[in-house]
Structures
1.
Amino acid sequence: MGPGTFTGIRIAAATARALSAGTGIALAKNSTLAALAAPALSCSPDVLAVLDAKRGQIFARRFSGTRRTNSIHCVRPGELEVEGAPVLVGDGAVRYRSELSALGRIPPDGSPLHRVTAAGHVLSADLAPVRPEDLVPIYVREPDAEVRRDLNPWSRP
């Protein structure tokens, strides 16, 4: 699960684990980037899923066919480099269109390819049941609290 904001991922993981433990419903794990890329892969064999990571950054991962082809990047949009010309999808591709458009084709802003959907999760998920403790969040960067720790006068030695 993830990537996303530290707090959002923690809340989602805790909620999913609690619902599973309380009801006995099985969990399946999946990445938001994989769910975003899955519908676009029906239109193009090469997709770059891009989420707005806030703080002027993006989360990006490339997918080819049904497999991911690299690790998750957390970079400023102008720092992202890719070979070829993938289709770029996601709210990050829309928000940073001017910086990312040279990397490949970005569908129009209103395209459903820019949204993470339940269908995308089903298409991309490993639907094998997992135990609640095996649902592990994907953290790509430090939480805001860690980044700003030095600004807190109470955290200094």
2.
Amino acid sequence: MKISPQEQLSKVSRLIETMRDIRKVVRTQFMKKMKDHDLDLTIEMLEVLHILWNQDKVNQQEIVDKTNRNKASITSLISNMTARGLVQRNPDPLDRRNRLISLTPEGERYQQKLIPLLEEVYAPLLSADMIREIEHTTNQLQNILQTISE
């Protein structure tokens, strides 16, 4: 069955809108959970913490790249997180011009506070059937990403 170029664009737009809507709903629910548990963090701070939980001692440019934010906003965000005692800047032993961002013990403790909240937000998605659907959808989206990245 052949579909028109306009229908093709409509299907692509619907995919992008759905991904955006999923991100928005999860973000909103997670922000509410953090507020309910008196955790004073922004989603942007959470993104940086997540990066550092997976790989400690990351240079600022890597954080910029992984969060898709500009360097000035990440610099300000890291300064704020440093003032809150969540992260620290350390000299890069391989390049003195760079600073490596790492977690403080307090930043590490936040992971234990946030995991139960993530579990609550993601609970509706954790059935065996949904996990299979998520795996399939993730594979499809990775194929789409690879296609558009070429």
3.
Amino acid sequence: MGAVFAIFGGFYFWAPKIVGKTYSEFLGKVHFWTLFVGVNLTFFPQHFLGLAGIHFILSSYLDSHNPFLLDTLIISSLIIIKPNGPHILPIFFNDPVRIYKPNLNRNLIGIENRKRTVIYQWINLINGNIYIGSAWNGSQRLLSYWTPSVLNRKYHVSNSISYYTHSNFILGILEDLGKTGSVTKEFMLSTEQLYLNILFSKYFSLALNKSPSAGTTLGFKHGREFGLNRLGKLNPMTNHKFSSEFIHMQRRNKVGVNNPQFGVIKSNSTRENLTKLVYVYDAITLEYINSYSTVHCSKELKMGKDTLSKYLLNGLPFKGKLFSRVKLHNY
């Protein structure tokens, strides 16, 4: 845009000298200020959009079935300029008890929610996605969203936090149900279910939850019988009488000649199916040398198992030899 302004500047300076007529100074000022304000309103917010995590075309971040989100994002990108970029106005399903900026209030989250049973809501401030969750011990659950093992799980909320980072999320505690153990888990899940009903009925396209059912990610809930202790009389096989043939099959000696496979010579194809073979080739001519089991190959060629695994994975030659799990020759 700097070049465009320079071109217009040169035009306004040289045009009257070339044409021999002057232009309206009022219209010239109107043109300049319209262009100046319009260019800055259009392109200046894009610097903050980049800082906020939108590195591609804006439309790829939006749900085409949610025009309200599009309007909100456009308005916020032009008006609500925050230190971390333009953010949409978060929609909480209840007046939050506590609100946190995760990138700034991590320690506070752990302190204020320690041994508290809470219902919480994550909101993505870039695309408006929402996650509803419950925690028996608030600090333990909420701080787990900084743990790499949790962020690497194949959950929508974990992927979203990993991609957009904590800076572009806001965390709200919708309800603090009291100290851990003061309410039952059934009450906690029933409270969470109320908010999940709102999420999946009114904001389905924004849901980061995989399931509309509280307490599960897959939508399946075990009955109470599933968690019962199945020792003794609760075990369905207690006092069950087995046939003499069944008991004989379970207790018979299978060592040596009693083993059905004793003395059976396995074919090469069977051995290949049972053993993970390593095929060794000349690195230059790709001529087949031999095939070994993993342990035998390591001993025969005097190389460590880790070294062998490394060159099997990267496919590079080692000491003039090429190693493969797949047969590269036809004979």
4.
Amino acid sequence: MKLKFPLSRNEIFFAAVYFVQAAVGISALAEFLFTRNELKFSFVQLGILAALPTISWSVKPIYGFLTDLVPIGGYRRRPYLHITPLITIISWLYIWQFADSFVSFVIPSMIASVGMGFTDVICDGLVVQQSDEKTAGRYQSICWGALTIGAIVTTFLSGLLLGRELVSIRGMFFLTAMMPLITFAMSFFVKERKISEVSEEKVHQEINRKYIYSAFIAFFLTALIIYPREGQNMELISIGVIGIWFVWFAFYFKHLMDLKVIGKGLFVAAIFVFLWRFTPSFGAPWQDFMLNKVGIDQETYGYFGVVSYLGWLIGSVLFAKWLDKKNLKKVLLWTILISAVLGMSQLTVTKVEWANLIGMNPIIKYIGAAIATPVYLVAHGKNFWSVLMAYPGIVHLNMFLDFFLGILYMVSFLALLKFVALSTPKNLEGTNFAVFASIMNFGLVFGSVSGGMIYEHIQNGLYGISGLAITVWLGAITSLFALIALPWIRTEHMAHEKTT
């Protein structure tokens, strides 16, 4: 949909929330450098660090229920929009000033994510409340456009500011703390109708409050078990974190099934979503390899992320133009298979000699350089091409792979989101979509923790195969597990399946 300007006050707020969601990623590179190189986190600890903030997003339905249950001053949304950005700001300011250990970094990071997740849920609620047949597409265009712009801009700045030593590592945490000020300022311009009738103040009785209370208890137990003590075993802690939230989510999911909020068909769909997203994550080992082993400078590493996001843009266009109308089950099947095969291409990067040789192939080199041209034109001006041509082959190869893997990631992600959205029963879209989003996030939690635990044992290699190469094999194989549930997925009830 073509956007018309000017935007309304609420539309500007929607854009601000989604922009900030991406903008807090400006500290992602600094976070790795600080935790791995300065605080000497193990890969198990890095896995937990990646998982705990994701847990905060895995319980998003709770935030929605809380705003419904406890209106403030007659408003369900706006007062929370004033409070939640401040939670994120204070948490990152604490990290900026005081973080010097595992707990003093991880706990504030998790609390900051609660603030971000809460703000996102409230924003989504406002979007849904104000959406109709004419505005739904416009709102989604605004939200995802702002998210993409935020990701590209801040990822670019992350590498640039650190690589050129314009901002220190801790200084990046201060910049991150400043980002939610945008949302906080815009929240005062949000329009919301005040609750005027007693009937509107009734709480939603369908969801038992004990699941809200138990979520807070789970957060407390998580903080308790990761608190440092003598003889602490980080692997047992990882299992404990997964166990706490698996038990909570299993009972919560069963509760929703008992209430007929979700049925058996959706349960199968949930299993499929979880299996697709639970692939062990090895992001930290790859960062360690590129930055500390290969010696890629921080600025160039930041530009890898920008190139990947450019691939996201292309992938979203491809999906909207050609794949959106195709049989969804076939799209899911082929994206899983192609993702596994293309993911194996990363094996070429695990040996620097191979990567340099392949990357200097004229086809790979010049396609990689052409892909990166917009980024380097902004960063280096008229000297951009000479900078690109001076790189070793591994940089060109990584640019090439990141771009095309980014395209595939976005195609598969949009197919997954469409599947989730169309699998929800009528009149229960909001609740079910939030539940599915939580399942996807919980799959990522499992992937982060399991990835850290696995790599801690295989980082030195097994049977002559490097630890990094093993991560590629594991990622490809586990991504195929979702095929187990695919035959039981039913899409015939979906409107678009009748015409293709």
